[in-house]
Amino acid sequence: MKIALFGGSFDPPHRGHVALARLAIHRLRLDRILVAPVGLQPLKQDAASASFEDRIAMTTLAFAREPLMEVTLTDAPRSDSRPNYTIDAVLNLKRTLSDHDTLFCLMGADSWLTIGKWYRAQELLMACDFIVGARPGFDLDRIPKALPATIRVVAAEQSDRPGCILFELSDDADHHSRLYLLPDLAVDISATEVRAALNRHAETPADAEALLPPGVANYIHEHRLYGV
Predict the structure, then answer these.
(1) Which end of the chain is more exposed for a tag (fewer CB within 10 A), N or C?
(2) What is the dihedral sign for C-alpha 64, 68, 69, 73?
(3) Phi and psi of 10, rounded to 5°?
(4) What pLDDT, in 10s, does the model give residues 126-178?
């Protein structure tokens, strides 16, 4: 099976998240995407506006109509209150898979550009393959520039998967992984943009429907999240 771990704050989940997951399934022919809201984001520990429970509920609503996607608690808040690290989620998930399964880490380009700052970044980059969605016009040179010094791009070419650009990655110990760039993600939305729109005191859930999946806007208004 081809399985992707799609982690993030999902604060709130929006149509851009769903669009990226759909595109990844279509281009890479994935069998399943595990959508994992993060308990405590290491690089922005004070940024989550909604509780983990609310973010799980909203994410479940956002992906409810997607048969190959499921919300998972694999990156739930830790009992020791430490930040959640993607390397831990990836390694824990790999232990549940067979040798015939392929694991990907799915993310948007904005997240990829911070990858060099992630905890145990070199180990993470060799632990699985990656799928990165970017908006049209994204500068391909930013892919290698985001890597830690110990990781390099050894090849970049059009993938045999239509609509994908393949980057072959390697580290100093000659381990290898792959990054599939999806360069034409059409939905240009950020959670920051959504929160700002909501915080302008939209009076009805319909005002946010253009940015949010079905059900999420209603949940936000019913629970009075994001200053609504």
Answers:
(1) N
(2) positive
(3) 50, 60
(4) 999 999 999 999 999 999 999 999 999 999 999 888 899 999 999 999 999 99
